[in-house]
Amino acid sequence: MYQAIVFLPLVGFLIAGLFGRAIGARASEIVTTGLLGIAALLSWVAFYQVGYAGQSTTVELFRWISAGSLNVSWSLRIDTLTVVMLVVVNSVSFLVHLYSIGYMHEDPDRSRFFAYLSFFTFTMLVLVTANDLLQMFFGWEGVGLASYLLIGFWYKKPSANAAAMKAFIVNRVGDFGFLLGIFGLYMLTGSVSFEAVFGAAQGLAGKPMAFLGYQVDALTVVCLLLFMGAMGKSAQFLLHTWLPDAMEGPTPVSALIHAATMVTAGVFMVARLSPVFEYAPIALQVVMFFGATTAFFAATVGLVQNDIKRVIAYSTCSQLGYMFVALGAGAYSVGVFHLFTHAFFKALLFLGAGSVIHAMHHEQDIRRMGGLAGHIKFTYAMMVIGTLALTGFGLPFLHIGFAGYHSKDAIIEVAYAAHGAMGPFAFFMTVAAALMTSFYSWRLIFLTFHGQPRWGHDAHAHDQHAHADHVHAGAHTADPAHGHADPHAAAHGAHDDHHAGHGHAHQPHESPLVMLIPLGILAVGAVFSGIVFAKKFLYEDGIKSFFRDSVFMRPENHIIHNFHAVPDWVPWTPFVMMAIGFALAWYMYIKRPDVPAQLAREHPGLYQFLLNKWYFDELYDRIFVRPARWLGRFFWKKGDGWLIDGFGPDGIAAKVVDITRGVVRLQTGYLYHYAFAMLIGVAALATWFMFSGGVAGVR
User: Fold this and answer.
1) What confidence score (pLDDT) does residue 615 get?
2) CA 540 to CA 16: how far, in whole Å?
3) What does the alpha-carbon distance between residue 13 and residue 28 come to, in Å, rounded to a whole number?
4) DSSP 8-state code for residue 213
5) Where are the beta strands (DSSP E) in 359-516?
6) What are the two backbone dihedrals, phi and then psi, of residue 564, each rounded to the nearest 5 degrees?
7) What is the pLDDT of residue 579?
8) Whole-angstrom Cα distance, residue 512 to residue 103?
9) How far apart are alpha carbons 135 and 205 in whole angstroms?
10) In whole angstroms, what is the distance from residue 29 CA to residue 100 CA?
């Protein structure tokens, strides 16, 4: 069964990828979606057998590498942490496949698209079932490759190619650190097997090692290097810049990347390596710092985004920060719980956004929407459910609420209860992020579904906020990735038409049933996944019986007990922030829609700072991109062109050619030229003989 769960998506990839043209797009859709459906069903069976019945196991498939002391087998590590990820990855991937049948029905390259989706799923399954660091790295790099292929799926679109390369290159930075961390663990333990590494972790606590000429704590350095990999894959602060640009891919790709696969890989990796991180408390404090900073930073940028997918993308970035706050506090199960619930409501929001884009004929700018609630009622209801889950709507005194209420609010309580210097900082940042999350989430709902329609011929007459954004967002509108629509048929050039008003003369329409069914299923998860599974992820008895040895907490780690004993006002804090954010969004976009434009005019510096994402892209361009480009051009022109080509083999060959051309000029073919040359030679010889003989006679 476990082999089928992992390899069925690979079979789908091979069939659609190798034989897609022969069997046709429809057959490729059916085969890949059907195989993912079977894998998803089996994943839920495994979830019950392992999580509830305790049937953890290891399945060895074959010997992979045997070189000296390094012996690596390809094995499937099946424990509770694994099956939680299997459920998330395969369930969301199956629904994304099903949704894509309707969403991509006009695209001529559907077979290739579904092959890429299945390959993406397979590589993530390899990662989460890994039983050693090498296999995990194989899946880790496979996910990066698959994301590159999917983000750049519409390869005829320059911005899509640029976004794909950006994601690939930024992740290489993080992967370099991850690889060094793996090398470090191998050096310290002599093995890449999880069992050997985890068994040796306690003995390595406090052990020094030489690093860059300094004596440092071995586990701290190794864990920081490993976390560097997580920062890249999970788009944490400083290595986050690829995430919003990944919106250039089709909307189902956004749902898959940002809900269930690539961005969750870093969270999973830290949770899997909890036996190592537990003995590196300084590294955990760094994890918490970056998580809290990311949660706050991404929320501030989300406040002013206008592309419906980018708003949700920055929300993803922020929520990933929450997960790392929990991991940094040592509450690994709480972080994984938010990963679990987040997959449902974030996939719901992304696919709901795709339904809106479908209804609006490829339009993505929420400033050009409005009044859609009456036209796409089911999509509207699903988006509201997703928003309620994301903002953490619930009743603290009854402990009842949507999925985000149980997982996200628990992380805020964990941050309050956490020991260490980063605890108060993380609490403040996550509370502030909760306020901003509520604001920008309801801003999206109000601008998209309420108010006057702004998608008719006289649309801009109703949109004062949009006018303000256009006036104050010069740098934003210059962003090559901003505002590009999400095409169904990129080969026909439809994806840029909305800039010229494409679709504005059409009436918005509800999506087909094949797109709405996945929304309904995900909505069930967004509502009930929190309340149903909370006891297994948030309470000590449930964690011990459910997770058992799949996550590790030292006996001195009492964070699970402590966060249930916080003061009564702490659980109310995120509820109050959620309510304030909703009230502000309602006032600014329903009651007084002129206020956003006024604020943008009064605070242009802050507005531009947020709109341009804290200028990280510009900063990195100046610090890294331009110097690298200059250096490359210097080596090209001076090193390769002038030095090597000028003085190396090419230069010598050129000199030989020049000399031979000169010699060839002497061969004219005229007899009198040769006679003249002979006379000149005889005269020169006689002159030399006379003078040399005369000198000898004098002597």
Assistant:
1) 92
2) 45
3) 9
4) T
5) 394-395, 400-401
6) -85, -5
7) 95
8) 9
9) 25
10) 9
